[in-house]
Design brief:
The longest helix is centred in the C-terminal third of the chain and has 43 residues. By secondary structure, this protein is an alpha+beta fold. Helices cover about 40% and strands about 25% of the residues. It folds into two domains: about 250 residues, no CATH class; about 280 residues, Distorted Sandwich (Beta-galactosidase, Chain A, domain 5). A nine-stranded antiparallel β-sheet has the order 6-7-8-9-18-15-14-11-12, with no helix packed on it. Strands 4, 5, 10, 13, 16 and 17 form a six-stranded antiparallel β-sheet that branches. It has a three-stranded antiparallel β-sheet with strand order 1-2-3, with no helix packed on it.
């Protein structure tokens, strides 16, 4: 592979890694005044939760949403559990809400709480009226109304929730205001102590699907008041995702809009405003929802036929999307489907990645060949260009004019070699996103690699080394060796026109492999395996081409 293509790959990877790191630090660093206001807000929230638990009667004309200051505060929390083969959901009788989600097979819990809670009723004690293997029924009763919340397991990843509000009399209830329903609250405080999760927090994202499109917020681990918003209109679903998993709540009732409400630097809630405004005795208001917790698997999410697969998005936002011409998501999903299709045949993810590397190489080979041809022609013209530079070294304006006329006379476009590089960058960025976020690689082994979503870790040392840590990874050094060989073959085919250019080629032949080795040392082994395959094929092509040139 010639040097411009190498530069494209390194630039793509560097921008992706640097962008994620810098955006996390810059975009979410609150000002001192903002930090102080958030501390005050947190203190107010804590003080509100410590209000005396005095029991008071709710006036008949009061709204449900304002009842939080009038209802009894809970003291003793009781946890109930519903389990499927894939999930364990913990429910709290305080508010009758989903308190915690746990994916059993992956020992993972998303940073979400207070799911499907009624606003104003988060702190009141519900009673468990019924509990079975796959169903829990919570009830809360007053003199004027009853509230029922029924949770039921539908399949391994899907739960249903039904909230019923039933009036027990007609006294002053005809215009009762119905409370908002909290979809979930994000609580990232526990992530601060998880060193492994710090590397992946840039993958956190909350999203709201509306008929007009999906509103997304990535790097969703710190929040500011600038995120606060209240919008009118329908909502199709509300989602949250990280690197591999997603949680989606889909309301099956009419609503008037949604609210995004930061509760501090580490807390944020999303809630929906219901459309119903009144109800009568004997006529319950019903609010049905479904809760999905699943891996980010396109086929699995699409099987629910609710556009849940749209939560998966491979765009990174900002400058990286500009580099990929806004095509990252489209290309990444195409690559993901291709990789899944290859895996259906080969049944091994490591082999599938190797085959994928071969297929992508064949697709991009015409661009690489075009760039190499352009570079070779540039080398052939270098002796004449050197003469023009020497003749006009004291006249920069004339020098540029003479060189451009020389290019025009020889029908050579100096930018022709750069175009293939930029056309390949979207592919490299999309590949990085797919292979670094692909759930299907998690836990998949290949040869000595125990998990393709992690570094290959041939040896774990009892002590830590500078830069490398306590892991000895083999794929990055192998990649460096292949690149050294490739650069050596490439340098034989290119004749430097002057000593400075020759020196630059030697430096490049050393620096590029070392940079790639450093960049890939802690990257997922599936991604390193792909590029190792890609470079092996590219080196072989360079070697064959050098043989043809020598003949």
């Amino acid at each position: 592979m010639e040097q411009r293509t190498l530069l494209a790959i390194i630039l793509s990877l560097f921008v992706l890694l640097a962008y994620n790191a810098l955006v996390v630090k810059v975009q979410h660093k609150p000002e001192r005044s903002q930090q102080r206001s958030q501390l005050i807000q947190n203190k107010e929230l804590i003080n509100k939760s410590l209000v005396s638990s005095e029991t008071r009667l709710v006036p008949a004309h009061a709204s449900l949403s304002s009842a939080n200051t009038l209802l009894p505060k809970a003291e003793n929390e009781k946890i109930d559990i519903l389990e499927t083969a894939a999930l364990r959901l913990e429910f709290s009788n305080i508010g009758g809400r989903v308190k915690k989600i746990f994916l059993k097979n992956f020992y993972y819990s998303p940073p979400l709480t207070d799911m499907l809670a009624l606003e104003g009723f988060e702190q009141v004690p519900f009673e468990v009226a019924k509990a079975s293997q796959n169903t829990i029924l919570y009830t809360y009763e007053t003199d004027h109304y009853n509230i029922e919340k029924v949770y039921q397991a539908v399949d391994d990843h899907l739960f249903s929730c039904q909230i019923k509000i039933l009036s027990r009399d007609n006294t002053g209830m005809s215009n009762l205001e119905i409370p908002n329903i909290v979809m979930y609250k994000i609580d990232t405080t526990r992530l601060d102590n998880n060193k492994n999760y710090l590397l992946e927090r840039s993958f956190l994202e909350y999203s709201i699907a509306t008929p007009a499109g999906i509103i997304r917020k990535n790097n969703a681990y710190k929040f500011t008041n600038q995120e606060k918003q209240q919008k009118d209109g329908a909502v199709q679903w509300v989602g949250f995702r990280d690197r591999y998993f997603c949680t989606i709540v889909r309301p099956e009732y009419e609503m008037t809009g949604y609210t995004i409400n930061p509760l501090g630097e580490s807390h944020l809630e999303i809630k929906l405003a219901t459309k119903a405004s009144s109800f009568k005795k004997g006529e319950p208001l019903t609010f049905n929802s479904v809760l999905l917790v699943a891996p980010q698997d396109l086929n699995l999410l699409a099987s629910y036929k609710s556009n849940f697969q749209e939560i998966m998005n491979f765009n990174t936002g900002g400058f990286v999307d500009v580099l990929s011409f806004g095509m990252t998501d489209i290309l990444a999903k195409g690559i993901l489907r291709l990789m899944n299709g290859v895996h259906k045949i080969l049944r091994n993810w490591g082999v599938s990645i190797i085959v994928l590397g071969g297929l992508i190489y064949l697709v991009t080979y015409p661009l690489t060949l075009k760039s190499m041809s352009s570079m070779k022609k540039m080398q052939l013209l270098q002796p004449e260009i050197a003469k023009i530079r020497e003749a006009n070294k004291n006249n920069p304006e004339k020098l540029n004019r003479e060189i451009m006329e020389f290019y025009k006379k020889n029908k050579f476009n100096p930018f022709a070699g750069c175009l293939p590089m930029f056309l390949q960058m979207p592919v490299f960025i999309a590949l990085y996103q797919v292979l670094s976020r692909s759930f299907t690689l998690k836990g998949s082994d290949f040869l000595w690699i125990k998990d393709l979503s992690e570094p290959d870790r041939l040896v774990i040392l009892p002590y830590s080394l500078p830069i490398f840590g306590n892991e000895i990874n083999i794929l990055p050094p192998l990649l460096m060796v292949v690149m050294f060989v490739q650069q050596k073959i490439s340098s034989k085919n290119l004749i430097a026109a002057d000593p400075m250019q020759a020196s630059q080629q030697k430096i490049m032949a050393t620096v590029f492999p070392v940079m790639m080795g450093v960049l890939f040392y802690r990257i997922a082994s599936g991604l390193a395996l792909y590029f190792f395959t890609f470079y092996c094929l590219s080196t072989f092509s360079q070697w064959k081409m050098s043989k043809l040139i020598q003949k």
